[in-house]
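Sample 1 of the test manifest.
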Amino acid sequence: MKSIRHELSFRLLVGASLLLVAAGLVLGILIHSRLLGAFDHTLETKARALAALTSLEGRYLEFDFSEEHMPEFSHEEEPEYFELRLRDGRVIARSGSLGDGGLPAHTEPAQKAVFRNVSLPDGRDGRLVHLAVSPVVEMDVEDEGEVDDEVLSLLKEAASHPRPVVIITVARSRGDLDALLYSLYGTLGTIDVLVLLGIGLLTRNAINHGLQPIAAMNKQVMAIGPDALDRRVQLEAPPEELRTILQAINALMDRLQGAFERERRFSSNVAHELRTPVAELRTATEVGARWPDDPESVRGLFNDIREIALQMETVVTHMLLLSRCENRNEAVTRTAVMLDSVVRTCWERTSANAAARSLQFESSIEPDGIVNTDGEKLGMIVQNLLDNAVSYGAPESVVRCFTAKAPTGVDLVIENDVENVTPADLQRVFEPFWRKDPARSASNHAGLGLSIARALCDILEIGLRVDLQAERRFVVRLSFSAMPMA
Amino acid sequence: MKILIIEDSARLLRSLGHGLRRLGHAVDLIADGREGYDYARFNTYDVIVLDLMLPGMDGLTLLHNLRTHGNQTHILILSARDRVEDRVRGLELGADDYLVKPFAFDELRARLDSLTRRRYQRKNPEIELGPLTINTAKREVLRQGAAVSLTHSEYAVLENLALNRGRVRSKDQLLEAVRDGDSLAESNVVEVIVCMLRKKIGSDNGEPVVKTRRGYGYYVE
């Protein structure tokens, strides 16, 4: 499983390691180059010092070397070496430390010093420099003032003749240099490892610190069980990056709690709607079967059983219809439908119940109120809304039905006075099986009418809105779009 | 046994009332919570069967109010709510039993019998009364092994006396045990019932099983 902690740690450590290795390499190369440069400079300086001891006196080369001044070429232990050769390879002079041996020859005269690593005659690793020089013409300066111009001119002429090229080779052990370099490399490597470990620790601490709010969120979310859906995730001063996630989680929890409560209410309501009639059915049949000797009572029980069966049939039919609508399995056949005709037909069906509750009906629907929709389903919607108004409207009140022009089409409004309905109830009136009376015994309705009306409105694309005006006027508004007629 | 059923389903009330009366119980049937509360407060019942979702006053509030006012009647909750928390809440508020709908009529009867036995602190459904054996579970009376046929009212009076053995029961108390709801019954009905009962159950070594305490009522030893 992917882990932000592991991912961040891995990437940061790999990145830091690469940077450290690169920095170490650059630094190592730089130090190596500088130290080698200094080592070579020393070699070259010594070669040039030897070159300064080389002079041309007339036709003879003179090498004025003294071991006293440069004792490093004659040490018993770890000596340095030099060798002077002519271009043709003949040795002019060599250090006493070489004995009968010699240094690798270099026959290519070059203005610049040539360096290379060699194995010294005593077996040590060394480095040498080849330097090609032309010996200076020896001139006695003290006599210069006494010679006349003619002699001076002859000397200069002699000096202008081609002079022999002397190749000076100086070699010394590079043991100290290598030891220093290895020591530096080791130190650099150790520093790299230590820095890497430090980075690892700092990274872990930083990531842990950075992920603390996520861990706290995780802990709080994990603590939210089915019985604690009212809890919300709260962090003190949440980081900017988590604020939106926090809001999203809490919004999700709001929806989850709402859905859970709706589901709980639905289960409870279904339980009541189904368990109660089943209990009635079972008791009636058990009692009837146990005492069949009382025909009047048995007849009464049979009537009850028939009523229960019809009630359960209605509930099941409505639930199936609701399910089909919610799954969009209901076919829609659109035609031009006159709203006035639909409302009148539906009211006729419910007028007897309205009369029983002394309800009046007022209708003022425009004659041109024609909409393009499924007439049968619109009839079911209006019937459910009118049944609801008649069943739950305040006694002796008026049910009003009228049309109103709307910016996008036409609205059909059904309104009636109600008792004990609060604005909070408006959010639940469309829930399946919801009824204001928790006893669910005030009528023969199952509480599915408005749910079915909403589901049908959804598939017919009719807007459905409920409102409570002046705390007792329950207003249902069906909004029809101005659609082209079929 | 005198039972109050508070249940908003009229059909269930009818069936339960019919069945329990046929079993010989006196049953009051109420469909409204507030009315049921008044019945429970101002009458004496052996058991109250209480629905939870009631119009007027919900069952849990009714239960809470009864217990707050010191009513000790055994209460069996009969509800469609089957969640554990509903049952726990009902029992914690003072209900003595909880039965979920749908239910078997026999189970309800057995639970009501059990609650009645608890009311009279009895675990054995059989009561030995001289030559009589009364089985309160089967509603059966045997005299020396032979069944004695009693009407519901006769059985109810005998059971009430047996359950209150050694205590004098007034005619009004016995009338309560046999009277349904608001039915008007005179106290001489009890005298008639006791008279018929004595004839059917016979005597115990020449002494009547149901004895009279003149001016007070009846008792059994």
